[in-house]
Design goal:
The protein has about 160 residues and is of the alpha+beta class. It is built from 5 helices and 3 strands, in the order αβββαααα. This is Nitrogen fixation NifU-like protein.
């Protein structure tokens, strides 16, 4: 295993063991996604800014393998970082990010996730080589896409 693969594996394990963005509030509109093959589950919400046009935060709860849990944590971390920079996602920006994430994960290793754009979530690039694990990594992202579609009509 290369040094980069070891680093990516460590990032995934760290996020699985110490997840970011956990904690839903009863009033939040949620999307619940489940992988019936392995039993992974993620319930996610997008929290909107005061104007209601940008995603201020991603919160989630879930159970399952380290990949599904780390992926949800990494999505929440990306949202947190964007908000901290004063540039929370628009629905269109998050939709584009989800589409590119999906394309990379379905590429079977041909398209790596760009570290500059995806940050530590680029660690999930290796999942694309294991078709059975792609749905695990996609759960939180599909939940976000579902919420975007319900709220704004913006989704793929």
């Amino acid at each position: 295993m290369s040094d980069l693969e070891q680093l990516y594996q460590q990032i995934i394990m760290d996020h699985a063991k110490h997840p970011h963005g956990t904690g839903l509030v009863a009033r939040d509109e949620t999307s619940h996604q489940r992988n019936p093959v392995c039993g992974d589950e993620v319930t996610l919400t997008l929290r909107w800014d005061a104007a209601g046009d940008r995603i201020a935060d991603v919160a989630w709860e879930g159970s399952g393998c380290s990949i599904s849990q780390a992926s949800a944590s990494l999505l929440a971390t990306l949202a947190e970082e964007r908000a901290a920079e004063g540039e929370p996602w628009t629905p269109e920006e998050l939709t584009a990010l989800i589409e590119d994430f999906r394309e990379a994960l379905r590429s079977r290793g041909a398209i790596p996730l760009d570290e500059e754009r995806f940050g530590d979530a680029a660690a999930l690039s290796g999942v694309s080589k294991y078709v059975a694990r792609v749905k695990c990594a996609m759960l939180a992202w599909v939940a976000a896409e579902d919420l975007l579609l319900r709220r704004t009509g913006v989704a793929r």
